[in-house]
Amino acid sequence: MIYTEPACAKLNLSLDILGKRADGYHDLRMVMASIDLADEVTVSFVSEPGIQVSADLPYLPRGGGNIAAKAAERFFQETGLPPAGLSIHIRKRVPVCAGMAGGSSDGAAVLRVLRRALAPEMTEERLEEIGALVGSDVPYCVRGGTALAEGRGERLTDLPALPPCWLAVCKPPCSISTPELFSLVRLKKLRCHPDTAGMIAALERGDLEGVARRMYNVFEDVLPRRYVQVFEIKSALLGLGAISASMTGSGPTVFGLFRDREPAEQAAEVLRGQFGSGVLCRAVGSGRHSFS
Question: Could you say which of 16, 36, 39, 137 is catalytic?
Answer without folding.
Answer: 137
